[in-house]
Write a structure and sequence with these properties.
The radius of gyration is 14 Å and the shape is globular. It is built from two helices and nine strands, in the order βαββββαββββ. A hairpin with a 5-residue loop joins β2 and β3. 17% of the residues lie in helices and 43% in strands. By secondary structure, the chain is α+β, with helices and mostly antiparallel strands. The strands form two sheets. Strands 4-5-2-3-9-8 form a six-stranded mixed β-sheet. Strands 1-6-7 form a three-stranded mixed β-sheet. It has a single domain, classed as Hypothetical Protein Aq_1857, Chain: A (Sandwich).
Length: 114
């Protein structure tokens, strides 16, 4: 895919791909995890995760090990270079986004500022 947005690449870790595949297998009809950036949250922007059954024209699809993540064009502007990970530790289980564009983020890992 000769994508002009190669600098905007978002990656999935193996742990995130495995977890997405597991979640989707339990949700009949859902085919992908949508990650979006929206205004709000304790640091200015927050991530929103949704299970969806289709993609929009402006979606970028990231596929790994059978898992699909969809990110729309606008959210990709804020997420370029990010890595989506799934963490399972003493604090609990959660998707975490390591975003090099974020200058500040909150402890919950779901909001950030640029």
């Amino acid at each position: 895919m000769g994508d002009a947005k190669t600098g905007m690449k978002v990656e999935l870790t193996d742990a995130a791909a495995k977890r997405i595949t597991k979640i989707l297998s339990a949700e009949p009809g859902k085919t992908a995890l949508r990650v979006a950036v929206e205004g709000g949250g304790c640091s200015g922007f927050s991530y929103k995760f949704d299970l969806v059954d289709g993609r929009n024209d402006d979606d970028i699809a990231i596929e790994k090990n059978g898992a699909t993540v969809l990110i729309d064009d606008l959210s990709l502007v804020y997420m370029g270079g990010s890595v989506i990970d799934f963490v399972d530790d003493l604090m609990g289980q959660s998707f975490q986004i390591k975003n090099p564009n974020a200058v500040a983020s909150c402890g919950c890992g779901t909001s950030f500022s640029i």
